[in-house]
Specification:
Elements (H helix, E strand, L loop, with lengths): L3 E6 L10 H11 L1 E7 L3 H13 L3 E5 L13 H8 L5 E10 L7 H18 L3 E6 L2 H15 L4 E3 L6 H9 L3 E4 L9 H7 L7 E3 L21 H12 L3 H16 L2
Parallel strand pairs: 1-2, 2-3, 3-4, 4-5, 5-6, 6-7, 7-8
The chain binds zinc ion.
Zinc ion binds next to loops.
Length: about 260
């Protein structure tokens, strides 16, 4: 029996409002032992904590997604800082930089990203980092943090960068998490990058309800589907699905102290 951890799912999303208990049962049946439910706003941070209090297989990650900062009110950041101390919280995020959806001005995204990195260090909770079409800026901010404070505890979630990006992130202490995109037909370059990563630095995730892996592509994604991404990654790394599950679970437990 394999045991996997889905390190990134948005279970407070309204798409799960009607059937979350059944979704969690299917995850358990598929071998998913633990799921991190990742917040995007202050309200979502409270919702993720409430879910983690209710369901023992969930832990919460709290923060403001770069695309949602633009809607945040004056108290949002204070709420995140307060939420970081909750016993169900194991990480800070998701935070990061996004030039694809430029709804939050980039300078403000960057300011909040730095704040999240600081909170991550202060609360000893790893950072869950989103990077979309902003690799150069991402490396600049991470390197500045690394140069001043040392290795960064965190994960590049739904990693889609190239080999150089992967190496630079790993050198600063970060883990790389692969999502359903790894299984897509047009993702040969990403698979080639994934195939070169050391087994002790990779994680798997779904990013539910988004970006379902093949053969569920186009439908609502859910944590049970992490098995398809894990199987793909196992094949790329030349290990059995059992070995991949074992090591990615150890990696997630080590990073998030879960
Ligand atoms: Zn996400």
């Amino acid at each position: 029996m394999i045991e996997l951890i889905d390190t990134h799912a948005h279970l407070d999303d309204e798409q799960f409002a009607a059937d979350l208990p059944v979704v969690l049962q299917r995850a358990s049946a598929a071998g998913v032992a633990k799921i991190l439910t990742i917040a995007t706003t202050a309200a979502s941070s409270s919702a993720c904590i409430a879910l983690a209090e209710r369901h023992v297989m969930l832990s919460a990650v709290v923060g403001l997604h770069p695309n949602s900062i633009v809607e945040a009110d004056a108290t949002a950041w204070d709420n995140i800082v307060a939420a970081a101390g909750h016993p169900c919280v194991v990480g800070i995020g998701e935070t990061g930089l996004d030039r694809h959806w430029n709804n939050t001005p980039f300078a403000i995204q960057e300011e909040y990203f730095v704040r999240h990195l600081e909170l991550s260090r202060r609360s000893a909770c790893p950072a869950v980092i989103h990077c979309r079409e902003a690799e150069a800026d991402m490396l600049r901010v991470l390197r500045d943090d690394y140069d001043r404070f040392g290795p960064i505890s965190g994960v590049m979630h739904s990693f889609v960068g190239d080999t150089n990006m992967a190496e630079a992130c790993r050198a600063m202490g970060l883990y790389l998490s692969f999502a359903g995109m790894l299984t897509y037909k047009n993702a040969a370059a990403l698979r080639a990058t994934a195939a070169q990563q050391p087994l002790d630095r990779v994680l798997v995730e779904t990013d539910s309800p988004y970006l379902a892996p093949v053969p569920h592509r186009g439908k609502r994604n859910e944590p049970a589907h992490v098995v398809h991404t894990a199987a793909c990654l196992a094949e790329l790394l030349g290990v059995s699905p059992e070995r991949l599950a074992e090591q990615t679970t150890i990696n997630a437990q080590r990073l998030f102290e879960i």
